[in-house]
Amino acid sequence: MKLTMTITLLFFLTIFNFPFNHGVATTFARTSKPHVLVPSSIGGLLQQRGIRAAYWPSFTGYPASSIDTSYFSHIYYAFVLPSPTTYALDITSDDVEKLLGFANATSAWNPRAKTILSIGGGGGGALPGIFSQMASQVYSRANFINSTIKVARDYNFDGVDLDWEFPSNESDMSNLGLLFKEWREALEYEANITKQARLLLTSAVYYASNVSFDGGPRSYPIQAISQYVDWISPMCFDYHGSWENFTGLHSALYDPYTTLSTDFGIGSWIQAGVPPEKIVMGLPLYGPTWSLENPENNTVGAPTTGTGPGSGLLVYSQVVDFNKENNATIVFDNTRISYYSYAGDSWVSFDDIGSIKHKVRYARTRALGGYFFWALGQDLDWAISKTASKAWLT
Ligand SMILES: *[C@@H]1O[C@H](CO)[C@@H](O)[C@H](O)[C@H]1NC(C)=O
Ligand SMILES: *[C@@H]1O[C@H](CO)[C@@H](O)[C@H](O)[C@H]1NC(C)=O
Ligand SMILES: *[C@@H]1O[C@H](CO)[C@@H](O)[C@H](O)[C@H]1NC(C)=O
Ligand SMILES: *[C@@H]1O[C@H](CO)[C@@H](O)[C@H](O)[C@H]1NC(C)=O
Ligand SMILES: *[C@@H]1O[C@H](CO)[C@@H](O)[C@H](O)[C@H]1NC(C)=O
Ligand SMILES: *[C@@H]1O[C@H](CO)[C@@H](O)[C@H](O)[C@H]1NC(C)=O
Ligand SMILES: *[C@@H]1O[C@H](CO)[C@@H](O)[C@H](O)[C@H]1NC(C)=O
Ligand SMILES: *[C@@H]1O[C@H](CO)[C@@H](O)[C@H](O)[C@H]1NC(C)=O
């Protein structure tokens, strides 16, 4: 398999002299007709079976060959990073090994879920600034775009995904719009000249269409998203965490008192003008934990003193173990549509079968494109993945 990949790589270097440069990019910009880019018919076709996606973290050791693809239509490879100097993807030898292993695993999948190469990821650090720089100039955007296509084709992906957490001001947001436009045009062009199916273009985004933390208020480029991106994936989680000194549900569908809810976030995207079928709703397979200040005070909003089990985070399978081992009290919050549990001074926010089913039905009712999970390897015997897939398809 390694040999085949090397040959594919050489093949690309030899024949795929992709003439994407500044001059060509501006030509695309002048001659392309946005109205023939069929933004919503693709979404319309996908809608029938839904985008039932999940991210595969390449860094946890969970094998891609273990993914049961009967529950998923799309699997994201997370993540690769751009170089801080050239803005081309920086594919290290470690990345090469993981990408080859992933490509190999996918060839044995049945059914063969589509795969999308995700670029970026959370965690802050230098990455948001590198994306900001990359997106700010036409040549660095071109270099980045060109390299994403090359890497995606070399490793047999069906699409590319941007996970920029997060654009920090209005100029980042408008540059992001230019990036989406030029990226989509390059993908169309490459598909034309190589006579292959066009690579998908998707992006993980903040749960709501406006962002106001860490800087001034700024709005995502709705026009460019609607026109050039196949779908966006709002990250409908992390509303609360152990950085706060009170308990909270980190992925509440509704919230009676604040705008920190999935319903608010999804509503903001629709209200801003993104076609619902281009919205793929985030679902968590993990939850934050706290230590209660007073074990007797264990409701949502109760005072806390710090992180709980798992240093502040448990994945779903660990939540199930925690609840069992500690005979925890499990509460379904039927206003917010999410679960919490507590035992002694430990408090955990999580989603389970009931809330996942409710959220997927919500996504259906709002005619969204689908849902995605963060992340593979965190479920318990596919219980949540199976629930979601069934709730979508029936
Ligand atoms: C794009 O990539 C090809 C190789 O795949 C390379 O020959 C070309 O110079 C690149 N163009 C830019 C603008 O980076
Ligand atoms: C490729 O996948 C097969 C199973 O599909 C596995 O046995 C083999 O070890 C894999 N090779 C690599 C290099 O990952
Ligand atoms: C926007 O944010 C980026 C990244 O932090 C920064 O480099 C840039 O100077 C900012 N632009 C404006 C106009 O504030
Ligand atoms: C791709 O090909 C179609 C039909 O051949 C053409 O109409 C379209 O303009 C091409 N798009 C690009 C970006 O080259
Ligand atoms: C929680 O933190 C806020 C500010 O971060 C502070 O004003 C408040 O007093 C704290 N509450 C408790 C119970 O420690
Ligand atoms: C987002 O910001 C825009 C521009 O300021 C504003 O028109 C819109 O109402 C805001 N949307 C929400 C949901 O707050
Ligand atoms: C629980 O904590 C909240 C918030 O500090 C407080 O308002 C409430 O009175 C406490 N309830 C009990 C039973 O201690
Ligand atoms: C588990 O907790 C329930 C109350 O939530 C209690 O009735 C039961 O005795 C507990 N069982 C054990 C084994 O601690």
From TrEMBL:
InterPro entries, per the entry: Chitinase_II/V-like_cat, Chitinase_insertion_sf, GH, Glyco_hydro18_cat, Glyco_hydro_18_chit_AS, Glycosyl_Hydrlase_18
A Pfam family the protein falls into: Glyco_hydro_18
Highest taxon listed in the record's lineage: Eukaryota
Alphabetical UniProt keywords: Glycoprotein, Glycosidase, Hydrolase, Signal
Gene Ontology terms: biological process: carbohydrate metabolic process; chitin catabolic process
MF (Gene Ontology): chitin binding; chitinase activity
A GO-annotated cellular component: extracellular region
Annotated PROSITE patterns: GH18_1 (PS01095), GH18_2 (PS51910)
Gene3D superfamilies with a match to the protein in the record: 3.10.50.10, Glycosidases (3.20.20.80)
Domain GH18: 50-394
Signal peptide coordinates: 1-25
Family listed: Belongs to the glycosyl hydrolase 18 family. Chitinase class V subfamily.
Annotated protein name in UniProt: GH18 domain-containing protein
Lineage of origin: Eukaryota, Viridiplantae, Streptophyta, Embryophyta, Tracheophyta
